[in-house]
Amino acid sequence: MTSEALVVDVSRDWATACDVQQRFMQGLDRGAGTLDYSARCRQLRALGGDCYDFSPLVDRCLALTIGDASGHGLASALMISNVQSSLRTAAWLSGNNLAVALEAVNRQVYTSSLEDRHATLFYGVLDQGTRTLQYVNAGHAPPMVLRQDGSVIWLRAGGLPVGMFPRASYEQNAVELDPGDLVVAYTDGVTEAISPAGEEWGVDGLLKAATVSATQSAEGIVSAIFASMDEFSRGRQTDDATVVVLRVH
């Protein structure tokens, strides 16, 4: 094979990998029954280590996932794809026991990943009938619940990032949502956006952007958060950035 043919072959494989990753996170900007949800993942490179997922489950439940693999580029993309596929399988087998699902994901990711690689992960299941969100936070930046009365709840309970140790236990928690409540999940590439002066946007910047745009649709809120972040950082991006928004009607 000539060097030119090899370059073409590698480029084709890279494009295919990018397409596969995007297919994991497309076609999800929609509402479903009593819910309105949307998300956006903006990778630093063509392939990245962030992910999100919405998966309809039985009994009017919706699974919500957001994750962030350590590092950047191809290695992180491969790892986060492993996390996503492992979680989907574990979720089907473990039912409502989210902690058991995360334990299984941790074992799989630890076994199949390179040394010193791990991923933070937030996994929640919302029962639309009771408006109860069961969740496990595996070392991820804590999502926020913005209440209609202006109060904020941070979803922290869980355990360590997946893939750090061969065995890990996780704590499952729950929060009851009221009509109009907003769930905002994000990766650290959002809150760690840096201004030209070297200041960090932080959770305060994210919270302000979400609060100001809270009357919009979920898709509108996602767009408003990215616009506010870009205005602060003057469009400079130093890490993969993902935002997930879910509103209960």
Notes on the structure:
Helix content is about 35%, strand content about 30%. By secondary structure, it is of the alpha+beta class. Strands 1-2-12-11-7-8 form a 6-stranded antiparallel beta sheet. A hairpin with a 2-residue loop joins β1 (about 30) and β2 (about 35-40). α2 runs antiparallel to α3 (about 100-110) and α5 crosses α6. The radius of gyration is 18 Å and the shape is globular.
Main β-sheet, spatial strand arrangement: 1-2-12-11-7-8
Give the overall shape: globular
What Rg, in angstroms, do the CA atoms define? 18 Å
Distance between the termini: 59 Å
Number of strands: 12
Structural class from helices and strands?
alpha+beta
* Unreliable parts: 3-11, 13-18
Mean pLDDT: 88
Can you count the helices?
6
Major β-sheet profile = 6 strands, antiparallel
Helix content: 25-40%
Run of helices and strands: HEEEEHHEEEEEEEHHHE
Beta-strand proportion:
25-35%
